[in-house]
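Submission sheet (multi-component)
Chains listed below:
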Amino acid sequence: MSSETVTIPRSSWLLLHAVAVFAFLYLPIAVLILYSFNGEGVGGFPPHHLTLDWYRTLFADGPIWDSVLNSLQVAFAAMVISLAFGVPAALALDRAQFPGKALFRRLVLLPLILPGIITGLSLLMLFNLTGTRLSLLTIMLGHGTALISVATTEVFAGLQKLDRAQEEASLDLGANYWQTFWRITVPNLKLPIVGAALLIFTLSMDEIAVSFFLIGRDNTLPLEIWGRLRRGITPEINAISTVIFIFSLVAIVFWYRLRVRAEGSADVMAELSEPTSP
Amino acid sequence: MFSRAYKTAVTAPPLVWVAVFLLVPYLLMFCYSFWSVTPAQTIVHSWDLGNYRNLLRVDVYWQTLLRSMWIAARVTIFSLLLGYPLAYFLSFYAGRRKDLFYQLVIIPLWVSYLVRAYAWKTILGSDGVLNTLLQYVHLTKHPLEFLLYSPFAVVLTLTHIYTPFTFLPIYAALEHIPRNLVEASHDLGATPAQTFWKVIFPLSIPGVLAGATFAFVLSLGDFLAPLLLGGPSGIMISNIVVSLFGAAYNWPLGAAISLCMLVLVVSLLFLSERLEKKWSFS
Amino acid sequence: MASISTSGVSSGAEPNSIRASLLSIRNVAKSFGRNAVLRNISLEIAEGEFLTILGESGSGKTTLLRIVAGFESASAGELWMGEERLDRQPPYRRRVNTVFQSYALFPHLTVEQNVGYGLRVAKRPDAEIVSRVAEALDKVKMTPHAKSKPSKISGGQQQRVALARALVNRPRLLLLDEPLSALDANLRRQMQVELKSLQREVGIAFVFVTHDQEEAMVMSDRIALLRSGELEQVATPREIYSRPATAYVAQFIGHTNLLKGEVRGGVARCTSLSWPAKFPDGPALFSLRPENIRLVAAGRTGDAGSVRLRGKVLHRAFHGATELIGVEAGDGLVLVVRTSGSAAQDTVELEFSPDDAVPVRESPGRV
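Outcome: structure written.
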């Protein structure tokens, strides 16, 4: 490795920079966790007395939990839709030739990088035209459509690494395409599929730009939070964010374990998905 | 080896879905942008360029668009300045702690975007963390008002949000550089600085382009951070679109602005893709 | 450019060549875009024979195998297995199984599950699967590793599992795509012998693809030599060695000397050499194997009717039991001669029998 051949001062400047960036990245998170225990709510620094009141308020707050339930439903539906169409899309991109393939590829992947407002608005126009009443269902369709890109990129990358002889061997041994898909292709793509599912779920739970335009009567969690932030400052938001943060950490650890066990290498995370829009 | 039936089975469903939920809506947006709305708030299929003329004629539209691009450009530059050295440090100097550091960059992404933006509001507000702290240590007597409800707050928050996104492709590009190239460069007598500028940096350009495109495009279209932290001087183009689709009720004009953004974004993506290809040597 | 039909091959009189035809490859061609990979291939594969498709990389041998297996479709031509048109069937309906080059064992299944895969997807009864898998594993001596994952066993063992996985389905034809290429030299030789005796034992026809001519010679009943998408010759190893049809075949299999000359009035001439040859007049090319040229002790008379020449030794290469020497025989003619002893002298006297100078067709673009 080259790290031994490098002079010390240079790397210590870089270390200093890294520490500063991490401080920048974690400052808001630290503040939000700290203030979720702050007796005075959001004002004042440093906090004078700590309390669990905001968590108590949170757990008694019906609308928040309703919105959490809504978000979970949306995220689950988005996951199903994205995988149901994203996995075949990856297979099509990997192994079929058809007119308009290049356009198709670009269209599928576009929502990954497009500002959510464009995806949200264009779908709003569609639903408006077809007279579809806005509801959780329209949000599910919106998230599902936008996040197909995640499933497709993850699974396509997995397919590129998959030895084609695996599927050939299966066909050769008498399994038809359907059997081969379920017995060989899917088990070989277990990691990308589970990874995509987790990522889609999390992104959907946090999505707001698309939901913002497709919302009906029922709020998702981010929209519920948004509504409260617009009305004023509530430390309860800090509490729910802290709770979600803890859940996310658990999910990361779970996912990391899964990958390391499956691939058994340290550079596992370097191959993690391309970045996705919030 | 895959039969026609197999190919049809995997191609048709996503093709139909993408056509219905992506292609048609974009086309619809295109159509809307040529329509107009009457004072009685009904949409007329007028098919003219009135909305686009308005865009050029009314100062607030193109000025806001320019301001949004300027904000997005600053976010991009700051994200690169923060993200690149971090990625370089992780890839080349972090040694065994590489994985841990990598996780530390990713973890903030799991905290809701909205909540992080809101946390910055808590930090920057007049009785927020920063001002209280500054007064506590007697650096200032009065709260600094420019911190919140300003383009500064928007740039700061968006930089915070998009730095990890800029970091990721740069890190991936750096990780793909074979380490023996660095050794070869040292072996041929190049100093570490020369090696960086002549070998490492050029090979990481595709990652830089991808990261920069991400930061620019996503912050250009943002409307939540400006609403939360921007104040009147921090309004961005998407905020105008939101109001046109909401209270102002002028969908056609909103569609025209959205379409301009779409075209801008797609051409940027195209450009970045071309440049990335030019700079990738494998 | 007609391909060589196999009907004329039986003169080799090996017992295998009389067997009934199992698979008939008729005028098969394949191109990828403008690139023609196979041209007009016709080949009969007999029941129970061990046929090797031999060729350099890029000769189209793997493509031909993949067409038979069903992973590629031919651009033209037909495949017939008895009365059945095979090329219209998907791979999973063909009673043909493949041993892949890198074995393609399923990493998420155990050895046992890999071997049982074909029976399971065919929905055979559990009891039958269990007993047939056990039998197949026993045949390749892999019973102790039945519960292992493929990543935990050695390359040679993976190879046996791949064989068992294919044979357990009782295919009519087994295709092997360079199955030994990943093994080291010693294991490879051992597997050649095992594979050959396994084939005799199960009596299934094997089509074996390789680029290694020695391997082809050792294992095959017949060799089909493929070059740039065309069949050069299909014959038994013995015949292909002693009666090569083309200059390419002669050079690809073993060492040879190519003598370029002409025939006129029943006499072949090449530089200063001449010998009786019953061929039509015209330019001719002869293949003369190094071991068919003998050193003649100075002053001794050689065999009657043999062609004699003198020459200067240019170089020597030691090959263990034999030695190859290059002899300059005048007029720029250099002959490679295989000798068993060590010829220490600088000038040597050589002779060969006219029968050993085998006329071969020119191979365009080579020689």
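Remark: The first strand of chain C starts at residue 21 and ends at 32.
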